[in-house]
Amino acid sequence: MPSIRQLLILFILLFAPTGTIASIQAVNAEEPVRVFILAGQSNMVGAGQVAANPKRNEGGGSLEWCVRNPDTRDRFKHLVDDKQAWVERDDVKIWYLGRTGGLSPGFGANESKIGPELGFGCVVGEAFDEPVLLIKIAWGGKSLGADFRPPSSGGETGPYYDTLVETAKKVMKDAATHFPELSGRKLVLSGLGWHQGWNDRVNQAFNDAYAENLANFIRDIRKALDAPGLPFVIAETGMSGPDEKHPRALSLMAAQASVAELVEFKDDVAFVGTRAFYRSPEESPSGQQYHWNNNAETYYLIGEAMGLAMVDLLRHE
After folding, report:
1. 198 has a pLDDT exceeding 80
2. Which pLDDT tens digit goes with each residue over 2-14?
3. d(Cα 266, Cα 194) in Å, to the nearest integer?
4. How many angstroms separate the Cα of 277 from the Cα of each of 57, 172, 240?
5. Cβ-contact 214, 259 below 8 angstroms
6. What ranges do the domains of the chain cover?
7. With respect to CATH, is domain 30-316 assigned 3.40.50.1110?
8. What residues are paired with 38 via a beta bridge?
9. How many Å apart are CA 16 and CA 77, to the nearest integer?
10. Backbone phi, psi, residue 180, to 5°
């Protein structure tokens, strides 16, 4: 449904003098762009399979399956047009380590994969009238205990922490180069989504320090990006599903949840449980558990939940 602002602009375009139209267009060019950073390791990179493989569970768990399966197609129908071609959103742009475009399937580990960015972008794109820019900065196999280690945790700052900060600043500064249609518009950093944890989950020392390191990461990244109170959403490292029993896995997930419960982070940090989004190998493109069995439905639902949590945090703006 068009917003009031969109209806007003349509009225002016139809009935107002040419000078007024030019003025409205100038105002539109100055609208702020909401920027969201999506960061983490391989499950933020994304391994959800786009194309259906008929030789593997009849294509189950792929994104193509999601839009065609009678049990799921209503939920995913917005991803395809009338000809069943993938939709590319013009209101949500994405930059992922140099790959750019309107949001669509294919911004995961490669063009045949998705990560949480698709569900997240669809939610925030629908929630806000302003244009949205997603800056996805993620690499596989990276720990918070070392690779993303924040300065406040002491020791050597993680090289990927520094790269994350530098990359986010540079992309925001050069946004008009990557997306000429955003030229002249102010960019407003609105939130950061975090999906990471496997490399700390399998390391006892990193596991023990995870809550402290993540809290420091949030404080430090806000300071580095000059964004006090930047809304921050933590997605649980729950790729083993609701039946997980390994002590390190359980303690890592508990640590992630505990950070969102700190008094200082009230109203600007949220934790999103993900174990309910687990799909078994028998209903997925693979049995690669640490990558959510390559299930595209899972990755989409994680991103969707992160987006809903982010929108909720932004109600406190």
Report:
1. yes
2. 444 444 333 433 4
3. 17
4. 18, 32, 10
5. yes
6. 30-316
7. yes
8. 136, 193
9. 37
10. -55, -30
